Amino acid sequence: MPIELPALPFASDALEPHMSARTLDYHHGKHHKAYVDKTNAAIAGTPLDGKPLEEIVRAAKAKGDQGLFNNAAQAWNHTFFWNSLSPEKTGPEGRMKALVDSAFGGLEGFHDAFKAESTGHFGSGWAWLCQDGDGLKIMSTHDADSALVHEGLNPLLTLDVWEHAYYLDYQNARPDFVDIFLTNTINWAFAATNLR
Fold it and tell me: I need a surface site. Which of 7, 16, 104, 158 has the fewest CB within 10 A?
C-alpha cells in the first residue's frame, strides 16, 4: 500500500483570514502531495513499501538515504503541521498548561521563546515544541529534518517556516505569520494528545 496524502483536518478556507484557502491549496495539494509521491516512487518494490510513514522516515535516517529521508520526513512533517493548526482559538489546559507554565513562565513566555526560535531560524525548516524528559523544549530543524528522529524528543507541535508556508499571505514577513500561528491557529488540544 503506498503512502497516501492525508486530507486536511479542516476545510481549506477554515483558517481564513489567517491562512488563505489559496495557500492551503498550493501547500497541501502541491507541495505536500509532491513529497508523498516522491516517497512512494522511492520505496516502490523495496522492503519499506507498505510500511508506516514514521518507520520509513526512521529507516531512511538510519541508512543515511538523504533523498528518501528528505521526501518522507517532509511528508510526515507536513501531516504533523496540519494537525498543529486549528480554526478554533484555544489555549493550553490541564497538564499541558502546567508544563508550559513550568518551562516558560506562562503562555506569554512560550510565545516569546517560540517566536524567537521561529524567526531567528535562518533559511528553510521547522520550529518545534517538544517534550524533553519531564519538561518542554523549543527547537528548530533545517530543511526536511524532523524532531521525530531526534533522540529523546517527543514532538508536540510544529510550525513550517519554509517560505512556501506563508509567502502568498505574508510575503517575506515571517514574524507576522508566526504571530498569527501563536495567537490564532495553534492547536493546543493536538499538542496535549501527543504528551507521553
Answer: 7
Does the residue 151 lie in any domain? yes
Q: Is 27 annotated as a binding residue?
A: yes
Residues 52 and 133 occupy one common structural domain: no
Same domain for 110 and 188, yes or no, is yes
57's grid cell? 522516515
Q: Known binder of ligand: residue 31?
A: no
Question: Do the bridges between strand 153-160 and strand 125-132 make them parallel or antiparallel, or are there none, so unpaired?
Answer: antiparallel
> Is pTM, for the whole model, over 0.90?
yes
3-state secondary structure of 73: helix
Alpha-carbon span 123 to 46, nearest angstrom: 33
DSSP 126: E
Q: How many domains would you assign to the chain?
A: 2
164 marked ligand binding residue: yes
Cα 67 to its chain centre, rounded Å, is 20
Q: What residues make up the domain containing 177?
A: 94-193
- Determine if residue 121 is labeled as part of a ligand binding site: no
Asked if the peptide bond before residue 2 counts as cis, ω within 30 degrees of 0, the response is no
pLDDT at 1 over 90: no
CA 75 to chain centre: 10
Q: Is residue 139 part of a domain?
A: yes
